[in-house]
């Protein structure tokens, strides 16, 4: 007995796919950031990133073209968070801190 064919549009609506995809991408970036905090870029493998994110090895390539793109996004996110952190502490002219 073969499985019943269900059109993709009926199985999962486009709206339901996007949040799951965004969540998986975020998990990968989170895992990459965690590994970057622990060691050098050259010592991090795509397999290790995927496993740290709790995903299979190939999933990474559904969201990033290669390891460097993923690691760059993790670094940029971290830098953005640091900029926001420091910017929020800049005193306003004419006030005392």
What's the rounded overall pLDDT mean? Answer: 81
Query: What level of helicity do the residues show?
Result: 55-70%
Poorly predicted regions are 1-17
- Quaternary organisation of the protein chains: single chain
Q: Radius of gyration, Cα only, in angstroms?
A: 19 Å
Number of helices: 5
The run of helices and strands is HHHHH
Shape: elongated
- End-to-end distance: 73 Å
Strand content: under 5%
Major sheet: none
Structural class: mainly alpha
Number of strands: 0
Brief digest:
The protein is an all-alpha fold. Helices cover 63% and strands 0% of the residues.
Layout of helices and strands:
Elements (H helix, E strand, L loop, with lengths): L7 H4 L2 H25 L7 H7 L7 H4 L3 H21 L10
Helix pairs in contact: 2-5
């Amino acid at each position: 007995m073969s499985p019943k064919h269900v059109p993709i549009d009926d199985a999962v609506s486009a709206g339901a796919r996007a949040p799951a995809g965004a969540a998986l991408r975020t998990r990968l970036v989170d895992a990459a950031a965690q590994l970057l905090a622990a060691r050098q870029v050259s010592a991090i493998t795509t397999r290790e990133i995927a496993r740290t994110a709790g995903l299979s090895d190939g999933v990474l390539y559904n969201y990033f073209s290669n390891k460097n793109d993923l690691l760059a996004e993790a670094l940029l996110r971290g830098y953005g968070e640091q900029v926001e952190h420091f910017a929020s502490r800049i005193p306003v002219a004419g006030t005392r801190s």
